[in-house]
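Hi P.,

Sorry for the delay on this. The queue was packed all week, but I finally got your sequence through. Input first:
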Amino acid sequence: MPRDPRQIQLEIDSARESLAATLDQIAYRTSPTRLKAQGKDAVRRFLQTPAGQATMGAAGLLVTLVVVQKIRHRRAPVEKVQVQVRRKR
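Then the structure:
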């Protein structure tokens, strides 16, 4: 038995509205601006916890140690030239 054209049109319209709503949800969930803001909020919340503060403290200490090592083991320009001259002989 053939279906009524009005019923078919109503089903098509319903499917179209459902698809439009789904696409709107996908666009909202994958919005770069929203994801960026959400990520920033998550990082800020983490940094306010004791674990986050300890992590930042450890990272700061590590950077400080690396900089100090670089400074301590840096040769003066004259020493570099002298070492290069010695190696060539």
